[in-house]
Amino acid sequence: MMKKNVICPFCGCLCDDLGITIEDGKITGVDNGCSLAKAKFLRKERLQSPVIRRGNETIQTGYEEAVTYAAEILNNAQRPLFFGWSGTQGEAQAKGVHLCMLLGGVIDNTSSLCHGPSIMGIQEVGHPGCTLGQVKNRADLIIYWGCNPLESHPRHMSRYTTYADGFFLKNAFRERKLIVVDVRKTMSSDIADEFIQIEQGGDYAVLSALRAMVRGEDEIIPDMVSGVSKSQLKRIVEMCKGAKFGALFFGLGLTMSRHKYKNIRNAVELTEELSRHTKFTISPMRGHWNVYGANEVFTWMTGYPYAVDFAKGIPFYNPGETTAADILFRKECDALMIVSSDPAAHMPKKCVEHMANIPVIHIDPHKNCTSFFSDIQIPVAITGIEASGTAYRMDGVPLRTKKIIETDFPTDTDIISRIYEKIQEMRNSV
């Protein structure tokens, strides 16, 4: 049996044209998917039942016992931290916010480790963005800054930019120009019409120079700016001003390099300068498939996109203070619940050391580095494959992921709801 138009729950592209072959209730083939999609849909290994750590051993247990144990850990904590959320559906994210509110904890998503600075920059100066459909049909100039989409988002170019014909571009590969800005050559830079290789940490200076040249202030620009010649910068400005519709996409090479959110503010203001001459937009290349959804759900429930602290009974947001890595680094939290994420593989050593010293609840279908630090891991259905749910594409368009095969595993929404109800029972019985 073939199921068509399935949404891929891997990266922020949320490609919605996959064909999935199912035989005897199992996925045996993936059409239209990139290598990342195939790895996700065809992955066989998974945790089969909840496990609890006792000393150096892990013991299998039932879901009721696991939910009760998790509820006891959270109910006894003075400052619980809830982290992850970018690999699950919006419904589970909403339940997580409610649980955090009940306990007066801190809830953060993986934005604080990737595009958090992008959100801070956008909060200062706004976001002149557009949908990926607009880019596909109209953009005749694409800029990738600090990202390598051919490896991180393998179908971004074929669905929306370089190789995607649009309504107003019938032969996109020839009509569309591509500029790549990075500190090193990549697969994406190899196919660019213009590659700007800047020095490490030189993004802010190059963005500022481009803004000045767009305003016609060429005379104040030195011959070299962070490793880029003035003549190349001038050529880039002419390409941008001559385009009918330009789209700038940026990645972690811009958000996590020197100057962080100020880079994003500068890039947004460059977009605004260019829009005085033509149409230009800017968008982040979001990584996890529903990290944009986590920002949306947190914002419409608390007013803030990530790093929300309910310790005072009201939502408080201060990146650098209420972000998960900072709380773990200061050894501030006394319990940690992780949903669909692997912080042990990505956070600094001192944060992971504190994880090893506090109770950790891990809700995830698969074993990963964080499993080794977890006191309890509860396996759940894989959203987008075994459970339906709402996700937001990297351009902010909400999509409904489908359930394409049956499973006996509960969803993470179910597990979080049961933990919430169990804690309420505990508190009502006192």
From TrEMBL:
<dbReference type="InterPro" id="IPR050123">
    <property type="entry name" value="Prok_molybdopt-oxidoreductase"/>
</dbReference>
<dbReference type="GO" id="GO:0018493">
    <property type="term" value="F:formylmethanofuran dehydrogenase activity"/>
</dbReference>
<keyword id="KW-0560">Oxidoreductase</keyword>
<feature type="domain" description="Molybdopterin oxidoreductase">
    <location>
        <begin position="46"/>
        <end position="420"/>
    </location>
</feature>
<dbReference type="GO" id="GO:0003954">
    <property type="term" value="F:NADH dehydrogenase activity"/>
</dbReference>
<dbReference type="Pfam" id="PF00384">
    <property type="entry name" value="Molybdopterin"/>
</dbReference>
<dbReference type="GO" id="GO:0016020">
    <property type="term" value="C:membrane"/>
</dbReference>
<dbReference type="InterPro" id="IPR006656">
    <property type="entry name" value="Mopterin_OxRdtase"/>
</dbReference>
<dbReference type="InterPro" id="IPR016457">
    <property type="entry name" value="Formylmethanofuran_DH_bsu"/>
</dbReference>
<dbReference type="GO" id="GO:0022904">
    <property type="term" value="P:respiratory electron transport chain"/>
</dbReference>
<protein>
    <submittedName>
        <fullName>Formylmethanofuran dehydrogenase subunit B</fullName>
        <ecNumber>1.2.7.12</ecNumber>
    </submittedName>
</protein>
<dbReference type="GO" id="GO:0015948">
    <property type="term" value="P:methanogenesis"/>
</dbReference>
